[in-house]
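A note on notation is needed here, since sequence and fold are reported together in a single record. The reader may check this reading against the record printed directly beneath this paragraph.
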Amino acid sequence: MIEEQTLNTPITEAPGRPGVQAHWSSGAKSGIGKALHAPSRVTFTISHGIVNEVYFPREDIVCINEAGFIVTDGKEFFSEERKDTFHDIRMYADGIPAYRLSNRCKQNKYLLEKEIVADPIRDSLLQLISFKSLEGTIDNYHLFVFISPHIKNSGNDNSGWTGKYKGVPMLFAEKENVVLAVACSTPWKKKSVGFKGFSDGFSELTENNS
């Protein structure tokens, strides 16, 4: 694991190698999605209100373990989307393997709504995300996305880094010539990668709430 540094400074490795042993996500799936077009080789599953596995290039090869959100107020409030919300999961329509998700905070502080679909002509998974404040203003909350790579059916020995592709800031992970890239249409305020259980963003948030 490496973290991107400012220009003209060396790339450094995140602390905590090799991290804790990786594990599989929940097998309690709520839905499965795939583009109805041959050029797309991406399949995904839904569980606990989040994307909990993404498969590529075949349905028996996992590349992402989980992709979800954490919401904090930077002080005391900490909410993990998959555990701390009530989930409403619906398909677009019968026979269309794409989903609309609505995750309402159990403390009634926010609402996360998603539309999730596999790109029909590219090896990409697309999520349209809407965050709504139900208590206070939207400025009261910090929204963090967490991605757990599990490339080629293993969460161990994945290499991760932050960088840019064609000028677009992204998060990357790679193993055995398979590369995962995560981009956001809203500019990232902060990005990080790290070893699971030690220096990954999820661990830092649970410790610091910011």
Summary: The CA atoms of residues 93 and 110 lie 26 Å apart.
